[in-house]
Amino acid sequence: MNITLRVWRQKGQDDEGRLATYKLTDVSPDMSFLEMLDVLNEKLTLENEEPVAFDHDCREGICGACGVVIDGEAHGPERTTTCQLHMRSFKDGDTITVEPWRAKAFPVIKDLVVDRGAFDRIIQAGGYISAPTGTAPDAHANPIPKPDAERAFDAATCISCGACVAACPNASSMLFTAAKVTHLGMLPQGQPERASRVVKMINQQDEEDFGGCTNIGECAAVCPKGIPLDTISQLNRDLLGSLSKGVG
Question: Would the keyword 4Fe-4S turn up in this protein's UniProt record (predicted)?
């Protein structure tokens, strides 16, 4: 495949960015998108140009480190992580535009790399439990209804990639926060902090300058792990219940 790339280049948070155009030839359809970027960087290095900075780690779709906007869509045209997107999703001769996540709370560090420390601070605000979990046999001491366990597991699949924020017109992180609140809120070990957790995490989310949720649904549509939109409804119920009790 021969493709043309329009890649966002930006030296730092305070620098002005631009789209730079590069041409690649003989791109294998079996390459992942990140492998294609590796080929581009090898080419740029040989030409004594600065390689494109992009985030990655496991390249297996489980760590959430990777993530870019491809042709206006978070993670690209398939519902998967950028590292699991393959070049067979594109056609020979395509022009592909690659940009970083766009959100005030995710400042650009360099090129396609953004600072997602805001997610870490939201979790630090309340995404934990104080109940001792004990040893493995102790985990079975409290029976959990199967629907509750499945919902907790579904919410726990969130990998904090930030696609929900990038896709939302308001740059809201509500789906991310809702996944963390729902995951712990469905389990017995998560009950002691359940009321205070949702208030603390929402307050921190607001402090990080994420936008407000208006239930557009783009977040759930692009989530590579399929976090359902109704987790936001559960967060709202927990929040209203906590506030009605004077928590916060």
Answer: yes
